[in-house]
Amino acid sequence: MTTYRQQSSHWGLFTAAGTPDGLDVIADPGDPDPAPLLRNVPAALDERVRVLAPHVRKGWLEGRGVRGRDEYVQVSWAEAVELAAGELDRVRRTHGNEAIYGGSYGWGSAGRFHHAQSQIHRFLNVIGGYTRSVNSYSLGAATPLLRHVVGSEDPIGRPTAWPVLAEHTEHFVCFGGIAAKNSQVNSGGISRHSVAGHLRRAWARGARFTLVGPLRDDLAAELDAEWLAPVPGTDAALMLALCHVLIERGWHAEEFLRTHCEGFEEFWKYLSGAADGTAKSPQWAEEICGIDAAAIVRLAESMATRRTMVTLSWSLQRARHGEQPLWAGIALACVLGQIGLPGGGFGHGYGSMAGIGVRPLPYRLPKLPQGVNPVRQFIPVARIADMLLNPGQEYEYDGERRTYPDIRLVYWAGGNPFHHHQDLTRLAEAFNRPEAVIVHDPFWTATARHADIVFPATTTLERNDLGCAREDRALVAMRQVVPPLGEARSDFEIFAALADKLGLAPEFTEGRDERAWLEHMYEQWRQNFDPGLDFAQFWEIGRLDLPGEPDDQVLYDRFRADPVGNPLPTPSGRIELFSQRIDSFGYADCPGHPAWLVPEELQVPPGSGEFPLFLVANNPATRLHSQLDHGATSADSKVHDREPMRVHPADAAARGLSTGDIARVVSATGSALAAVLISDEVRPGVVQLSTGAWFDPSAPEVATCIHGNPNAVTRDIGTSSLAQGCTGQLTRVEVRRHEDPPPPLRAYDPPVETG
Q1: What CA–CA distances, in Å, run from 642 to 212, 408, 527, 740, 742?
Q2: Per DSSP, what are the bridge partners of residue 412?
Q3: What is the spatial distance between Cα 371 and Cα 711, in angstroms, rounded to a whole number?
Q4: How confident is the model at residue 107 (pLDDT cuts 50, 70, 90)?
Q5: Which of 82, 596, 663, 664 has its CA at 20 to 30 Å from residue 109's CA atom?
Q6: How far apart are CA 362 and CA 546, in angstroms?
Q7: CB 408 within 8 Å of CB 91
Q8: 146: how many CB neighbours lie within 10 A of its CB?
Q9: Distance between CA atoms of residues 597 and 296, nearest Å
Q10: What does the alpha-carbon distance between residue 641 and residue 630 come to, in Å, rounded to a whole number?
Q11: Domain 600-737, CATH 2.60.40.10 — does that match?
Q12: pLDDT tens for each residue of 200-254
């Protein structure tokens, strides 16, 4: 009899069972809108791409070779553990723990125990610490900026709830859209996909929608949105012009600006042109954005006369000067004066994840303790290549002048930097600098292929865990569905073996195996919230529906009602339209107020120069990041095995391109092959190529990546000196048909093994 077992994932709950025909996956029947990404799950057990045993790079053993272009030797677990423990011990004793960089990105599993990021941080803390990263690729510019402007990350973690928007918002102005594809996923899992339903309810009630962005399908067609498609990267200029109109015509909330905002006078000096001689008028913005000045005025009037929610997608800040559109969007909401009112104000990230707009649970979740890292050194996460290539170099970050450490060993468990990072040729060069690279990975990803020691890690299907997320209302017993493939072990088992070799097993395991840790975490959680079931009872039932507070929160409602009694945690206690602290840093690329700063991509007019097109490298609809790129949903989207790239009909005609052609995408950074899809859903002058195709540099004479990974052509440069965030969303390219037969894809082929 086939036994189906429940699992949680970042894209939803499901049950699964191994059958003679492969893994059968069934979406949770209580989910109103299950994610198509569940069709990718069976590919997790595809042995063709799995690391089935420990491997060591042959050239590393022999003191030669290049990471990313070398053969691997299969070794025993005992030998792999001996080698890895020896390298860890050598580096920490010779160079100190600061010379170890612990890399992880946390999206590997929705489980609370087998969370790779928690496991690697716990292990490295036990052995004396490590150089860490801060912030994320998703929100690298937003996190530092929000701390200065509103004092916290509440606009991300506690925005106005979806039911409030569905009931009260009269005009959604969506900068960067509210993409349905992004709301399929949620960090830690999601039991009910509800974003699309809330948007439909708002539309049925009569809400108006305006989409501001280069891709028309970043807002569902059923919402009948007005589409304004500015030149990519010019959102801040458009927002400033909207502020200018509102103030100049007396449509602004003067009282709110006086009582709840700091620095309006300085901001108005800039907007009016008193500071620099240039008024940020609609006519000024039209020249930059390509949006008619009259349309800007009409939009401003509609926003001023309706309960308006300004939504700011995470994509806006993943570009040069990415702090500015977020800050300008907050300023626009301040000028409107609806912050703290039901359905009004602003939100950062609606649609970026399913949990944005859901009230977090009011109690802690089960959690693996990570311990304390005694090493104080860190880098912004998107600056890893800079760190590896430039040890000892100084750089600016959030008002500090910092120095990159000299990293001798990189230890990576969870995540794939060859997906998230930009300029992959430079990243490969950077990964060749350390003396040792150790990676845990279920698959032969590009990161595993740049390692010296590769440990085969299990997937979530091959172990037991607890699944839950702070924005979800379910705690799930994630029961093991199938035995581990090959010799794969969980990250916990790998680190336990290393800790034992280093004489630190009691500190790492605390005498517990997987089952004991799950019970311990559950029982510790019960001290904060007791569901009335002990662990054995919960494990037998398999799922708990968790109570939470009503989804009725309104961002900054208490602050609006009493800004003196409920101040924000900023220096002024108010929203900082002008930040004296940021201004004191003296950064030319991030002044003390929202500003229009011309990015390098616009220093040559759009449509001209060697690279006339904008490439938008957005998140994919067919997978989560690069996970399970070989799965059914992802594979079905490929054309001639390449990642599809959308091209506007006018741009395709000018280049003689047809749907199905293989094209070569070239930038100043690199090149990639992609398959052409002609579509009027993209703005003229824009091509769109999603991230996540597994990096394939196997034919460098043809292209940097022959599979269609856009980070082969994006620049590795920070958003600004303030945040040093990721800028992978936009770059300038040219596209031409690739006339020769494309080389065979090697991304899914394991590296050649020698005996």
Answers
A1: 29, 36, 51, 15, 10
A2: 103, 439
A3: 34
A4: confident
A5: 82
A6: 10
A7: yes
A8: 21
A9: 20
A10: 10
A11: no
A12: 999 999 999 999 999 999 999 999 999 999 999 999 999 999 999 999 999 999 9
Of 182, 185, 181, 179, the residue nearest 219 (C-alpha): 179
Tokens of 617: 């490298």
Contacts for 529 with CB less than 8 Å, ≥ 6 apart: 363, 364, 546
On the CB side of 443, CA atoms within 13 Å amount to 23
For 687, residues 6+ apart whose C-beta sits below 8 A from its C-beta are 613, 614, 615, 616, 645, 646, 647, 648, 651, 665, 733, 735
Residues with Cβ < 8 Å from 35, sequence gap 6 or more? 11, 12, 27, 184, 185, 193
pLDDT of residue 450: 98
Q: Which residues contact 45 (CB under 8 A, 6 or more apart)?
A: 18, 22, 23, 459, 461, 482, 485
φ, ψ at 111 (rounded to 5°): -70, 150
Query: What is the rounded CA–CA span in Å between residue 467 and residue 365?
Result: 10
Q: Is the dihedral of CA 627, 628, 629, 633 positive or negative?
A: negative
Domain 49-81+97-136+366-516, CATH class in plain words? alpha beta
Give the length of the chain. 755
Fold of 159-359+556-585: Dimethylsulfoxide Reductase; domain 2 (3.40.228)
Domain layout of the chain by residue ranges: 49-81+97-136+366-516, 159-359+556-585, 600-737
Residues catalogued as catalytic: 105, 107
Tokens (6 digits) for 422: 């930009």
Query: Averaged over 421-433, what is the pLDDT?
Result: 98
**Domains 159-359+556-585 and 600-737 are alike in CATH topology:** no
pTM over cut 0.90: yes
Which residues does 393 contact at the CB level (< 8 Å), separation at least 6? 386, 403, 404
Place of tokens 């054995």: 536
